[in-house]
Design brief:
By secondary structure, this protein is an alpha/beta fold. The protein has 11 helices and 20 strands.
């Protein structure tokens, strides 16, 4: 073998000396191609990142709800959320519209000037709520003390918030993680029932110039998805009005991928891009309240599965779960529970009517 290799080496050397360099020049590019192909093969594929985000509608606390939650030593709202807790807890991120103020001390009141016991927020934390929207028409119900108390309670429980702030320095987009993705969230309201924003504090209003500036200021290197939660529309109207559509179109032009609406206290339609690049939920309706009449006695929970491959644009899929509130203990009922849950004939009829109304709306 050594003799053979020596002869082969001698022949190659003779060929080089004789000027057969074309052969060697041809070998070099082949070697380079092989090396480049190996490097491509070794490069990792772009990573798929996913997150499951669940949105719930208006969390309210009318006086009958507060009465129903009263216990011997305080308040407990656990009964209301027990059937939706698994869906919220299994999400990577869960968000609701908190349409009341919070306080550690009584008196507690419902409509028209909401002031709820802190135990409501404790239960939200217990069932997996990570963040709440505060920019709504009831955030100023109790003036500066109500807004400060609400923020203090949320901070103490580790619940993030957006849309209303103790001062202008705190007014920033909410960057919040969901599994391997990060959302940048903004929140705005049409108004505060004619009540002024307390001096020195901030409640975000629907103002397209300010909204455009806020969206442009988002650090897209930190955010995979931009989500705007908007308190808008007309109460008890089951279709979005022209103003809602105009604001939604405006937000999408600014690069917002996900728009979540509240305020009408009834469910409204959902629109999604055919390429799965954006979604608009015009109104989630009520998550829990004492509005026990047709269309307002429930709402929607929406699960948005966000996906992103490498640096490509994110995509999303939307799953809708109708929810209905069963009195007298204000239990939030999903179809998987309500279809077999024992309830009286009147409740069963109203439950079926609500679910049928949702099915028609969402076709």
């Amino acid at each position: 073998m050594r003799v053979f290799l020596s002869i082969l080496y001698a022949l190659l050397l003779a060929a080089l000396v004789a000027g057969e360099v074309l052969y060697v020049e041809y070998l070099v590019p082949l070697r380079e191609v092989a090396t480049a192909a190996g490097e491509v093969a070794l490069q990792p594929l772009p990573r798929l990142r996913r997150a499951r985000v669940v949105f719930g509608g208006d969390v309210m606390a009318h006086t009958p709800q507060i009465t129903a939650a009263q216990t011997a030593d305080g308040y407990s709202f656990a009964r209301s959320f027990e059937y939706v807790a698994p869906m919220l807890q299994q999400a990577d991120l869960a968000i609701v519209n908190l349409e009341t103020t919070l306080s550690r001390r009584p008196p507690y009141t419902g409509y028209p000037m909401f002031r709820s016991p802190l135990e409501l927020a404790v239960e939200l934390r217990n069932v997996g709520i990570d963040a709440v929207a505060l920019a709504n028409n009831h955030i100023c119900d109790r003036g500066s003390s109500g807004l400060l108390s609400t923020i203090e309670v949320l901070d103490s429980l580790g619940i993030e918030y957006m849309g209303a702030y103790a001062d202008s320095l705190a007014r920033q987009p909410l960057y919040i993680s969901a599994a391997d993705l990060t959302l940048a969230m903004l929140n705005y309201t049409y108004g505060t029932n004619g009540l002024p924003t307390p001096r020195g504090m901030v409640v975000n209003r629907i103002d397209t110039m300010q909204m455009a500036a806020d969206i442009a200021a988002i650090d897209r290197s930190r955010a995979d998805v931009v989500c705007v939660v908007v308190h808008w529309g007309e109460e008890y109207q089951r279709r979005p009005n022209r103003a809602q559509r105009a604001v939604a179109d405006f937000c999408r032009r600014q690069g917002v991928e996900l728009i979540i609406g509240s305020h009408p206290h009834v469910a409204q339609p959902i629109e999604c891009d055919s390429a799965a690049r954006w979604a608009t939920v015009y109104s989630l309706g009520n998550m829990v309240s004492n509005q026990q009449w047709r269309y307002s006695d429930g709402g929607l929970m929406v699960e948005v599965v966000l996906s992103r491959v490498g640096d490509a644009a994110p995509s999303m899929s939307v799953r809708v779960v109708p929810i209905w509130v069963l009195c007298p203990d204000y239990r939030i009922i999903t179809p998987s529970v309500g279809d077999t849950l024992t309830m009286n004939a009147v409740a069963r009829s109203r439950y079926k009517q609500f679910m049928n109304d949702c099915q028609i709306l969402l076709k």
